[in-house]
């Protein structure tokens, strides 16, 4: 196979041609001092679990790497170091319980040493002592390391909970398919149950199938793993100690958006859509798989840097983070940004924390005030059967609309 590339709005799309010859923040007491594989994620004593999503760092060679799509006045002094500074600022401001990097963490084509680029890209997360994970995008492997090599390197880094692939699965497409369970508050009836399930998948890079151009997609083997994992988690949650009537909510993270993201316009999402949906040119059916599982309440992707919207389709929120890195295409004058998700537990009358009550989100901009925008209630146990409520609330200075 021979491939040719075409630049589309700053992304390189590979079209296959075939020849017919053919900042220090401490861990919770539950995780401090333990190796990453033994760390137990759980809700804090405030009944919350906060996730910071960082999409499309496009990290290359540090201070020698120029920024893209910034104001002319910013260009001379702007580099990958601006990306690093933004990560540091937002970690200190939000103090998340988990940091999720959703692909194109490095821009392999411009990274002279991919391992050094990854060291620098993830350095603020590592220094914070906050658990972090990553999945791959379509640019991570474009340097001297293979896709598997990139994921293996990430999985070996300090404080990461990332793994190359599920240890009990022998055949699965891609690299970086895994899940994490988040336990309830220590000392409560839910401390030994996963009250929140996080799924991470490799959405691929480019199509390897003849006559199907463009980006990759989540393959049948990955969907089979997801279905089995979701079924196992649902059964464990709904049976055993403190049986529940419904599965624990789940969140899914990967890089390339699903084709279903194209179902939205400005009338039915929160945020902005400033470019087309760069999904695969085929529909793998993963959205249907998510609906059938019944537990995933929201999907979070990157890839399309100047889209940052969230919209709900058939009960599942489809959300972009918005572009974060300064060596990634963007829009001059439109701030780089990150998405925050906070999951809150129900509190009983006697003051004990139980299962998940709500999932909320907002974005933080890399401006002078780290402005919070577009607060939303993505899911609520109390209002899950309603299309949209009419109330507004304020959370950490961000207006949230249900």
TrEMBL record:
It is found in: Secreted. Coiled coil: none annotated. Its cofactor is Zn(2+). It comes from the Eukaryota. Residues 49-306 form the Calcineurin-like phosphoesterase domain. Residues 1-28 form the signal peptide. Keywords: Glycoprotein, Iron, Metal-binding, Secreted, Signal, Zinc. One of its GO terms (molecular function) is hydrolase activity, acting on ester bonds. Its main location: secreted. The keyword Phosphoprotein does not apply. The keyword Coiled coil does not apply. GO terms for cellular component: cytoplasm; extracellular region. Homodimer. Belongs to the metallophosphoesterase superfamily. Purple acid phosphatase family. This is Calcineurin-like phosphoesterase domain-containing protein. It comes from Vigna angularis var. angularis.
